[in-house]
């Protein structure tokens, strides 16, 4: 958790994601169209409906649809749809991953789907609609950003004070910007180890990285998987682990099955993960280092302001997503970047992994300043879950690659006296 806040406004406290509908994410397409979530935010307001597919007189190959889901992982939804259609996952295209514990709506593409089967598709918590034919596949990054509508609950303030603090924050954040930290979901949910596994892999400790991914457990996990992880850590018995790991932990199970047959093929076990997921471990470690650079800038008194030696993106200072082709900044920013790598005992060349080319990274830079857009206080109401407390609904938009939890942290200021 970052130490510093970027704004001077007082926080309102509270908590988020008390229920799934408290966190709504709507994708903003490149042209500005918003994929509106309309089925799940208000339970019971929309009847179940099957997708209606228009005729395709021009022989177009890609069918675009709005995908709305509630409390579903994006990869799980892809698997559900492609299994039902009896087609390869490679036919499925999307612009970005969306939160699991939330209601989300985004645009997807399907290559030459079986229309009859698609029109019969129905799955709890998943809805497809607004089908249109196109010749273009939707790929990662093909979006402008996301619109968030979030309910913050358990606020222990008077309504007048909540309004006052929120309005000050909503004015200050878009005007001055806030630290563009990577959110905690980048580091792996409850276990928060994705970046640690990434470092192990980048440094060539493949066995340690894979076993950490399989065996590290946290109290917040379900009891069955927590005990299965602990047992595997104690015994290294992969045959037993195939029986103990719950079926829904499909990634771990696929790795364990491989290790049952080939106990020494650690790299092969890691390769059982989807390629996009394998790279996430590197990206998580890059994100951890990025956050450290911002923290160090605050400690050095530089903060988010421009200083001599900064590399600028769109006129704003940019911190590194370290990689083997990255060029350090100059002056004080460059000193910070070099010192953090030294403290981590890692070099730029460690991001070039010959045995696992797919997790290698050339490096890039990202702005350290985040400016939310169209921030609005939608309502303040009595909290139905916490008697005597208030719930505030906030909406705002972010460009792609930025985190709503970073904005909410500034507004709530958890841990602030």
Molecular structure report:
There is one protein chain. This protein has helices at residues 74-85, 115-119, 159-176, 194-202, 206-215, 223-235, 238-244, 250-261, 266-270, 275-299, 331-344, 404-412; strands at residues 23-28, 62-70, 92-94, 103-111, 126-134, 145-155, 178-179, 312-313, 316-321, 364-367, 369-370, 373-382, 390-399. With 417 residues, the chain is an alpha+beta fold. It has three domains: 1-26 and 146-177 and 372-417, TruD, catalytic domain (Pseudouridine synthase); 33-134, Alpha-Beta Plaits, CATH 3.30.70; 183-370, Orthogonal Bundle (Hypothetical Protein Yqey, Chain: A, domain1). Helix 4 runs antiparallel to helix 5 (206-215) and helix 6 runs antiparallel to helix 7. The chain is globular and about 55 Å long.
| Corresponding CATH architecture of the largest domain | Orthogonal Bundle
Helix content: 25-40%
Structure annotation, total helices: 12
Report the end-to-end length measured between terminal Cα atoms: 16 Å
Mean pLDDT: 92
């Amino acid at each position: 958790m970052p130490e510093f806040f970027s704004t001077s406004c007082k926080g309102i406290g509270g908590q988020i994601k008390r229920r799934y509908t408290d966190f709504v994410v709507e994708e903003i397409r490149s042209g500005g169209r918003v994929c509106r979530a309309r089925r799940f935010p208000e339970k019971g307001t929309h009847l179940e409906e099957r997708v209606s597919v228009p005729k395709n007189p021009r022989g177009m190959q890609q069918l675009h649809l709005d995908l709305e889901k509630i409390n579903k992982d994006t990869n799980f939804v892809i698997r559900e749809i492609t299994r039902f259609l009896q087609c390869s996952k490679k036919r499925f295209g999307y612009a970005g991953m969306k939160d699991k514990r939330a209601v989300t709506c985004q645009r997807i593409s399907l290559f030459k789907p079986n229309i009859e089967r698609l029109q019969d598709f129905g799955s709890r918590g998943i809805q497809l609609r607004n089908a249109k034919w196109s010749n273009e596949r939707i790929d990662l990054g093909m979006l402008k950003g996301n619109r968030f509508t979030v309910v913050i609950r358990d606020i222990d303030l008077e309504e007048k004070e909540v309004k006052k603090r929120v309005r000050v924050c909503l004015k200050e954040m878009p005007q001055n910007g806030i630290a563009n930290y990577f959110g905690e979901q980048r580091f792996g949910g409850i276990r928060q180890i994705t970046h640690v596994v990434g470092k192990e892999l980048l440094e060539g400790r493949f066995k340690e990285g894979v076993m950490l991914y399989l065996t590290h457990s946290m109290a917040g996990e379900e009891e069955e998987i927590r005990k299965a992880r602990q047992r595997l850590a104690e015994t290294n018995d992969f045959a037993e682990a195939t029986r103990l790991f719950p079926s829904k932990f499909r990634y771990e199970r696929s790795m364990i099955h491989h290790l049952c047959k080939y106990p020494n093929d650690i790299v092969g076990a890691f390769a059982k993960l989807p390629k996009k997921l394998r790279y996430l471990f590197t990206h998580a470690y890059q994100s951890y280092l990025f956050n450290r650079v911002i923290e160090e800038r605050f400690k050095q008194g530089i903060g988010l302001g421009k200083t001599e030696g900064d590399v600028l993106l769109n006129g704003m200072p940019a911190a590194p997503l370290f990689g083997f082709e990255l060029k350090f900044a100059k002056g004080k920013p460059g000193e910070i970047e070099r010192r953090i790598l030294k403290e981590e005992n890692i070099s730029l060349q460690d991001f070039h992994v010959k045995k696992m080319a797919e997790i290698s990274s050339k490096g890039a830079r990202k702005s350290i300043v985040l400016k939310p857009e169209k921030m609005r206080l939608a309502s303040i109401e009595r909290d139905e879950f916490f008697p005597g407390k208030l719930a505030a609904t906030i909406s705002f938009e972010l460009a792609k690659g930025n985190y709503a939890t970073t904005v909410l942290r500034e507004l709530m200021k958890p841990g602030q006296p």
